[in-house]
Amino acid sequence: MNDSEKTKSPIEKASETLLNFAVTREDVKWLAANLPKETVINRAKVEYELQILKIISVGWSISYYLENSPQKNQLTALFWQAVFEFAQSLSETTELMIGQDIDYFQVLRERLDMYLAAMAEQPDAPEPAVVIGPQFAQTCGDADDAFVVMTGSRLFIATVGGVKAYLEEIKLR
After folding, report:
1. 96 belongs to a structural domain
2. pTM of the entire predicted model
3. What is the pLDDT of residues 72-88, one digit of tens each?
4. In angstroms, rounded to a whole number, what is the distance separating the alpha carbons of residues 49 and 152?
5. How far is residue 108 from each of residues 34, 86, 105, 166, 170, measured CA to CA in Å?
6. Which end of the chain has fewer surrounding CB within 10 Å, N or C?
7. Would you say 129 and 153 are in contact if contact means Cβ atoms under 8 Å apart?
């Protein structure tokens, strides 16, 4: 372990771990690749939106599961700062590669606002995934595609469950 690792607080380490979880792409790629062949949708768009959904689901989960925790504000701030830095780097790389300025953090913010608004519109939904799946499919371009709805719901449920398990493991929840 290097010196910088030794000097990080448990909350800083948690933020780093959660960011790494949020940007890991294996599950995103698997879900996009395993959409049924009869699903006629832009699979690249689905994969792109799945990654966005995963990142914002991690951030949402931190706030949700640590709602009454004294560590909530610090961990939330550290996580979103790390996401901002990741997004800046991604935006710069994208601009170099395609010559277009894309503010990836702004995209994340807009999607988070969109999903939060959709949940606010359906406060009686039995669980957030019931709202997230259809909103995800609509964002991908086909609100009526049940497979895309299930894919968004599945990623959301798995991500939220992963954050919950991690927070319990490190005894923050």
Report:
1. yes
2. 0.91
3. 999 999 999 999 999 98
4. 9
5. 24, 11, 5, 23, 27
6. N
7. yes
